[in-house]
Protein: UDP-glucose 6-dehydrogenase
Organism: uncultured Chloroflexia bacterium
Amino acid sequence: MKEFNVGVVGAGHVGLVTSACLADIGHWVTLVDVDEERMADLKVGEVPVYEPGLEALVDEVARRGRLRFSTELTSVVSAADVLFICVGTPQGDDGSADLSNVGAVAKSVGRALAEAEEREHPLVVVNKSTVPMGSGDYVSMLIQEGAAEAGNGSVDYRVVSNPEFLREGSAVYDSLFPDRIVLGAHRRDGLDVMRALYEPVVEQSFPTKLDPRPKVAVPFVTTDLASAEMIKYAANAFLATKISFINEIANICELVGADVGNVAHGVGLDERIGSRFLQAGMGWGGSCFPKDVAALKSVAREYDHQPVLLDAVVAVNELQWKQVITKLQRELHTLKGKRIALLGLAFKPNTDDLREAPSLKVARALNRRGARVTGYDPVAGKKAVRLQSDLRVVFDLYEALSEAHAAIVVTEWEEVRSLDLEEAASLMKPPKLLVDGRNALDPRAASAA
């Protein structure tokens, strides 16, 4: 395989995973970020995000010299064959994606290219940040503008869209064994470089300790820039729709006496539908689904198109966590003076991400109604306290349950799934109400306890 010099801009979740995995499959990678403190931490082996397997992988490839850390973009651009942009695109007030970070990087890349010596090959600039359709052309324009401002308007580069499909909690696995790799570009030579870069993943030729190897080959999808950008938004919007759909079905099941778990199983056996993302619960959160659905809705409205289905998907999701409050009020009558335990705080297991997490919305609503809330999470607890100071956080599951009038399963951590229901009941105060917001526990065993 050909070994590339790769620059990755942005030391967040996506940038860290991307840089570590590219280094692991045999490339020479430099991770760049303007946050000097974060880069200093990384140089001594402190990874700022929780992701299973990532810290060990970063340490390994750094010790092998395959991964380096820098705060200087200019030198990285000069040496790189491929440069990934992995900076944040936060949601604006109107739901649109804020491209200011992407734009700043693009202009800096243009200036760096203008100041560098003449290149043997064009720099391939890869947009891995989640961006709306047309952003590839926007990045290209800003690179050109940055170069012109530096006095050289004839810089050589190619812009490629390469959306990420990483699930928090399994991002390293998803990078090395993806369902597909999607690339979009206006010119073929940029795609050819990316095919060579990803050859070990596409052909699954890199060494792995997993036996058997999960995949023998990975589909390599090439298209135009706008279509590649749209694939990411469409995929996340569909998954969010699927979750909202099963939650709507769950609400109807509760009314008619049906078991949504059995319903989802029966529906999921249909090969046209599939069983994944049919787990009813408190709704979706995190950094991707809320932001990406909002951005897609914003794009639709730019063209005077009303995204009726996406509006409904969001409305159903918003109702899910509110129904938990309604159930508590129905059973406890008043929440004033009641102690409520939240079992899990992160928006999903195996991550410390609390962005748009139902737990914090529920905690705020309970506090406003006079309840006292104690939260448990094995990973996200300290972060939760920083975000919500009136939330009491403990790191022992049974301590959270002690003296609680009600408990809510918010995140289906393995510790929560394996909860000793009899011990939990012995610690709680009447009426000892358990609201399983993730359908993670056996309802018959819970009733018996």
Remarks:
- The mean pLDDT is 96.
- The radius of gyration is 24 Å.
- The first helix runs from residue 13 to 24.
- Residues 334-448 form a domain with the Rossmann fold fold (CATH 3.40.50.720).
